[in-house]
Amino acid sequence: MKARTSARWAWIVATKVLLVLAWAGASDDAHGRDLFMAALVLQVDSPEVELPWPITDPVAPGEPPGGGINLVDPENIQDEVIYDPVSGQYIVRSSVGGSFDYRPPMSMTLDEYLNYDMERSMENYWLDRVEQDSKSAQTQLIPQIKVRGKAFDRIFGGNTIDIKPRGSAEVIFGVNVSKTENPRIPIDQRRITTFNFDQRIQLNLVGSIGDKLKINTNYNT
Question: pLDDT of the chain along its 221 residues, tens only?
Fold first, then answer.
């Protein structure tokens, strides 16, 4: 058992000596040193797979995914900005649960961070506006209409047509069938079918075209 252990240690020491000698021999030759370092790199044990829909990380932490099948980051991924007074850099970190980084941090200068913060603020602002407009359009029966053109804006004081109908509508539909057993009446005329249709509508239409023209209409049956 001792002989086997001694042989193992001797083999490890000999391997290290050979590596040192090889490094020393290749130190004068940059190309040889590169080949030597490349030989020490571990080979990938699995082949690279080209996905039909590649998944890529955003350029900067916190940016929305760039389409495809990239999903929004989960809630446990937190983005934070830390100022380093020693280097004067702003460090942007993306961590899981605030405990460890799941991607390398990114450093920025003051100007780069100001531009980054401005772009993020503008992007979040327009995303919120689009979401609010989408919710507003879903709640309205007739969505707002935007009319482009300076002439329309000059005449009506705006370029938005907003119409909001309110009220109720009731429709009554029925069928009346009457049959008379009278031998004096032809068979095809003994049965009479009539349709009953009635409607009750109460409508209040409030609208505006720009800021200068207001519309208010009531309709009641």
Answer: 444 555 555 566 556 555 555 555 544 555 555 555 554 444 555 567 776 766 666 656 656 555 556 666 777 888 888 888 888 898 888 888 777 787 788 888 888 888 888 888 888 888 888 777 766 656 666 777 787 777 778 888 888 888 888 877 787 878 787 888 877 878 777 788 888 778 888 888 888 888 888 888 887 87
The per-residue DSSP string of the chain comes to -HHHHHHHHHHHHHHHHHHHHHHHHHTT-HHHHHHHHHHHSPPPSS-----SS-----SSTTPPP-STTPPPPPTTEEEEEEEETTTTEEEEEEEETTTEESS--EEE-HHHHHHHHHHHHHHHHHHHHHHHHHHHHHH-SS--EE---HHHHHHHSSSEEEEEEEEEEEEEEEEEEEE---TTS-GGGSEEEEEEEEEEEEEEEEEEETTTEEEEEEEE-
Q: Where are the domains of the chain?
A: 2-40, 77-136, 145-220
Query: C-alpha dihedral over 197, 198, 202, 207, to 10 degrees?
Result: 30
- Contact call for residues 127 and 134 (beta carbons, < 8 A): no
